[in-house]
Amino acid sequence: MTFSKILIANRGEIACRVIRTAQRLGLQSVAVFSDADRDSLHVRMADEAIHIGPAAALQSYLRKDRIIDAAKKTNAQAIHPGYGFLSENYEFCTMCKENNLIFIGPPPNAIRDMGIKNLSKIIMHDANVPVIFGYHGEDQSDATLISEAKKIGYPIMIKAVRGGGGKGMRIALRESEFMDKLNEAKSESKKSFNDDSVLLEKFIQRPRHVEVQVFGDMHQNYVYLFERDCSVQRRHQKIIEEAPAPGLDWSTRKKLGEAAVKAARAVNYVGAGTVEFIMDENQNFYFMEMNTRLQVEHPITEMITGTDLVEWQIKVAQGEVLPMKQEAIKLNGHAFEARIYAEEPENEFMPGSGRLTYLRTPPTGEDGKIRVETGVVEGDEVSVHYDPMIAKLVAWSTNRTSALQKLRNALQQYYIGGLKTNIPFLMSLCDNKQFQLGNVHTDFIKENKDALFHLQQITPTIAVAAASAFINSQQQTHYSSNGAPTLFSVANSSFRPNFLQKQSLSLTYDKKEYKFEIERINSSNLLITYDNKTYPVEIRPVNDELVLLIDGHQFRCRMHIDGDTCTFYSNVSRSSFDFKIHPPSFLAQLASSGMGGVAGSSVASGDPVAPMPGIIDKVLVQDGAKVTKGQPLLVMTAMKMEHVIKASKDGIVGKINAAVGKVVKKGDVLLTYVADDKNTKT
Q: Which residues form a coiled coil (predicted)?
């Protein structure tokens, strides 16, 4: 069963991750790519690459036939599915077997049995694995589901039978909202899995999400590699994970591991799998589901056990015995993984997209205690067609406190420009006292919202530093043909960088304007007046950073300019700041008069706009239709999640601008109302 060439049926960071291990083991790798990924990192890393279709996943990465054909065309003997896409697809696994291709994962029956949530609960119950009470029946009529929900008692968790990754999952806190939540879950499930069947479970409030990494081989050997805590989530999706779970005693840890092995043994599991449990405040745990693949967060398990789980997958797929027995697997230290996403945490974590115009990663060192798992480089595009994850940042140390400090420091040295990310939010999370104490649960973000979503304060030193870095960047790269810096007004249009003169600069952060007067002494020294105080500033470029000496205080910083936004990074502030650059006054006057092409009338009139980049999935109304406030108008999909766009007022639809399948940008006007006095009242 040995093989020498692997096709990776995936993209992005997981494809790169598998390729690295394959290269280390002396195996050739084949990548597949869509139109959107033609120049992606995983394509460049692989020995060969095969084009499989357009950008949309349904026409490329989910095309089983094209991936099988790509394997045959390149004489690959095995396929690694990564995670997501076809990794838990029973039909694809079966097709691999039928075409004499080794599927690097579990057998088809295990994928099928664990993928159907109600069946998996029955199997787990029979295997003496603790299962939470709920309804897992085949009768999916509204009447039956309403009746069963009443029997279980609210709050109710509604979950897609074939679900995963938070898709097709809703929580009904009371009976009055059950049908709305049920319909939402069914619709999302149908789109994601082509099956709208759901199961109902009693929702445990303030639970922890604790999962166990298990491994099995073809010789009926099974081990667990301890647990991971993935409780801190948004939209039912993980954002930061750690291993081991904080606060667990060794007795509970052992019981968890043994229960996970029972689950794997019950379905004759082979390869890497994760058994997910829900845990209450008394550390009672109940089986939730089994992910029959490698998890996104597998690196933290590798860090605390000293293993390469992709290597284990490959060896097991070749028929080898598990590399280690249970007694040989030791837990060493603590590890965190932070998922870095293109998204806006302050805007309900709306996903984003765009080009990575600036990207600098933290130093990883040779000791392996910091890892950056990514599939992008500077200049790459985060596409609306795929998950918005940019990278996974992993940190290990001997204990939880030290590991968290390492993660926080590494996040501070992760610089991304061109789109908004969740890095500031992740740093805020690391600074949160309750998180530092390990008091985590799935409602953590909601309960700590005020503490987590606070803007960093701009101190005078930070304000002056940002102005200094901006002036320096203008001097280096943004002079117009007559020598005058662009983007901000100057008192003297004959400005030359080495001559003594004054100029004005205005930056805005969080709706507050910061005004500066700058007097340049020479190429590296400035006098900056801010808030009636003058600060002597010395600027010294060192490699990719600036070293600033402001009024006797020296520190490092960076500045990235993208359009009218300049992002300031500083080791003193332990955060980043997005400043808006004020245009010259004549441009501001044009914009305010409407002559500068500034949009805004549609938003002001209440016409619905796209809250994030995405793809139009459904249009629920027609031109001329009368709509009422709160009525669903369109359905968008963004990063595998469904978002319903509702009317903000009563009115008559004038024109629909968004057709099914259209890719829209954030802020695009999706439809307009008829503009008359009666129908434009908000």
A: none
- Crossing angle of helices 423-431/400-412, nearest 10°? 150
What is the total count of domains within the chain? 5
Q: Given this model, what pLDDT does residue 636 score?
A: 86
Spell out where 149-232 has E strands.
Answer: 156-164, 167-172, 198-202, 208-216, 222-229
pLDDT tens digits, one per residue of 250-291? 999 999 999 999 999 999 999 999 999 999 988 999 999 999
What mean pLDDT, rounded, does the chain reach?
88
> What is the CB neighbour count within 10 angstroms for residue 164?
22
Cα dihedral across residues 292, 297, 302, 304: positive or negative: negative
Q: What is the DSSP string of 385-422?
A: TS--EEEEEEEEESSHHHHHHHHHHHHHT-EEESS--S
Distance CA 476, CA 224 (A): 55
Q: Beta strands 156-164 and 134-135: pairing type?
A: unpaired
Please answer whether residues 582 and 506 qualify as being in contact, where contact means their C-beta atoms are separated by less than 8 angstroms: yes
* CB neighbourhood size of 382 (10 A): 25
- Considering only CA atoms, which of 287, 292, 291 is closest in space to residue 124? 287
- Tell me the pLDDT band of 591, cut-offs 50, 70 and 90: very low
Q: Is residue 8 within a helix (H) or strand (E), and if so which, with residue range?
A: strand 5-8
Together in a domain, 36 and 164: no
**Which among 83, 96, 89, 111 is positioned nearest to 292, based on CA atoms?**
111
Q: What is the pLDDT of residues 348-395, one digit of tens each?
A: 899 998 999 999 999 998 788 999 999 999 999 999 899 999 999 999
| Domain end among 398, 423, 453 | 453
Q: What is the pLDDT of residues 500-541, one digit of tens each?
A: 467 889 999 988 999 999 998 888 899 999 999 999 999 998
Are residues 477 and 538 located together in one domain of the fold? yes
Any idea what the CATH number is for the domain that residue 475 is in?
3.30.700.30
Three-state DSSP state, 313? helix
The more confident residue out of 68 and 494 is 68
Of the CA atoms within 13 Å of residue 333, those in its CB half-sphere come to 18
- Residue partners of 441: CB distance under 8 A and separation at least 6: 206, 207, 208, 231
Q: State the catalytic residues.
A: 293
Whole-angstrom distance, CA of residue 200 vs CA of residue 198: 7
CA distance 296 to 290: 14
**Nearest by Cα to 6 from 72, 63, 77, 57:** 77
Task: Determine contact, residues 49/31, Cβ cutoff 8 Å.
Answer: yes
Long-range contacts: 216-219, Cβ < 8 Å, 24+? 216/106, 216/264, 216/265, 216/268, 216/269, 216/270, 216/271, 216/273, 216/316, 216/322, 217/270, 217/316, 217/320, 217/321, 217/322, 218/270, 218/316, 218/319, 219/321
Domain that holds residue 661: 609-674
Residues in the chain: 682
106: preceding bond cis by omega (within 30 degrees): no
Q: What is the pLDDT of residue 111?
A: 96
